[in-house]
C-alpha cells in the first residue's frame, strides 16, 4: 500500500475519532486495494446484491390482491387491453370525520389498517394523494389487466357520440342554469337522504329476516313429526285446560 493512502487514512482516523461507527469495517469486505491504492470491487458479491434487490423489486411489482384480473395481468403488454375510463367514482370522502378501529394482524398494511386500501393490488396507503397516484399508476393498471401505454383508438362514431353528449349537457345548463354552490349542496343533501333511507330499509329487512329464521326454527322444533323421529313425545310442555 502506498504511503499516500496511509496518510489519507491516518487523517480520517484523526478527524473522525469521536465517531465509533465511522470507521467500522463491514461484515465482509466488498472492496480491496491494489499495490497502487486503487479500489478493486468484488464482482461476485455485488452481483448477488443486485440479484437480491431485483428479486425484492419483482416481488413488489407482481403483488396483487383478491380483485385483480388474473387472466390478463400476466399477458404481454401488447395483448393487454388499452386503458379505459374509470366507471366508478373513487371514494375519497366517506371517511372524513369518522373514527375507525385499526387491526394490527397484518402489520401496518392490509384491509383492516388505517388509510386507503386497494383490493386489486392488496396495498394500503396513508393519504388521498398517494391513493390517487396509486390508482393511476402502472402497477394498478397492470393488475386491472390494462396496458398503461396503450390508448383506445378513436372512431368517427365515438367522436360524434362525445359531441352529442357535450351538446346535451350545454342544453341542460341553459335550461337549469349553471351549477352553483347552493345547488351542489342541495344535490348532496338529497343524495345523503336517499342513502340514509336505503340503509334504514336494509336494516329493517335484516331484522325481519332474522325473525323469520327464528320463527322457522321454532316451528321445526314444534313439528310432531320431527319430535317423533328424535324419540320425544313433544319438545315443550302443553298447557292444561
Give the helix level as a range of percent: 40-55%
Rounded to the nearest angstrom, the radius of gyration is: 34 Å
Overall structural class, as computed from helix and strand content, comes to: mainly alpha
Molecular shape = elongated
Strand content: 5-15%
Q: Reading side by side through the largest sheet, how are the strands ordered?
A: 1-2
The residue ranges in which pLDDT falls below 50 over 5 or more consecutive positions are: 19-26
Q: What is the terminal separation in angstroms?
A: 114 Å
Main sheet?
A: 2 strands, antiparallel
Order of helices and strands: HEEHEEEHHEHHH
So how many helices?
7
Instruction: Tally the beta strands.
Output: 6
Average pLDDT for all residues: 75
List key phrases describing it.
mainly alpha; two-stranded antiparallel sheet; two-stranded parallel ribbon; 7% strand; elongated
What this model shows, in words?
- With 241 residues, the chain is mainly alpha-helical.
- Among the domains are: 1-13 and 31-61, no CATH class; 64-86 and 100-153, no CATH class.
- The protein has seven helices and six strands.
- The chain has helices spanning 3-15, 43-61, 128-135, 138-143, 156-176, 181-222, 224-229; strands spanning 31-33, 39-41, 81-82, 116-118, 123-125, 146-147.
- Strands 1-2 form a two-stranded antiparallel sheet. Strands 3-6 form a two-stranded parallel sheet.
- The model is unreliable at 19-26 (pLDDT under 50).
Amino acid at each position: 500500500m502506498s504511503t499516500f493512502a496511509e496518510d489519507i487514512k491516518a487523517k480520517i482516523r484523526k478527524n473522525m475519532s469521536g465517531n465509533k461507527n465511522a470507521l467500522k469495517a463491514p461484515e465482509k469486505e466488498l472492496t480491496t486495494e491494489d499495490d497502487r491504492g486503487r479500489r478493486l470491487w468484488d464482482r461476485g458479491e455485488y452481483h448477488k446484491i443486485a440479484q437480491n434487490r431485483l428479486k425484492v423489486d419483482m416481488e413488489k411489482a407482481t403483488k396483487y390482491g383478491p380483485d385483480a384480473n388474473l387472466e390478463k395481468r400476466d399477458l404481454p403488454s401488447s395483448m393487454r387491453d388499452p386503458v379505459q375510463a374509470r366507471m366508478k367514482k373513487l371514494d375519497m370522502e366517506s371517511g372524513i370525520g369518522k373514527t375507525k378501529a385499526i387491526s394490527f394482524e397484518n402489520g401496518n398494511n392490509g384491509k383492516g389498517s388505517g388509510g386507503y386500501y386497494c383490493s386489486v393490488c392488496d396495498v394500503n396507503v396513508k393519504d388521498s394523494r398517494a391513493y390517487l397516484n396509486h390508482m393511476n399508476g402502472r402497477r394498478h393498471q397492470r393488475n386491472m389487466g390494462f396496458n398503461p401505454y396503450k390508448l383506445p383508438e378513436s372512431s368517427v362514431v365515438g367522436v360524434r357520440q362525445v359531441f352529442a353528449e357535450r351538446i346535451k349537457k350545454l342544453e341542460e345548463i341553459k335550461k337549469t342554469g349553471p351549477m352553483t354552490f347552493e345547488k351542489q349542496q342541495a344535490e348532496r343533501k338529497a343524495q345523503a337522504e336517499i342513502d340514509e333511507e336505503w340503509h334504514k330499509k336494509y336494516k329493517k329487512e335484516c331484522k325481519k329476516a332474522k325473525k323469520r329464521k327464528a320463527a322457522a326454527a321454532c316451528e321445526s322444533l314444534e313439528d310432531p313429526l320431527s319430535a317423533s323421529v328424535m324419540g320425544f313425545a313433544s319438545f315443550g310442555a302443553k298447557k292444561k285446560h
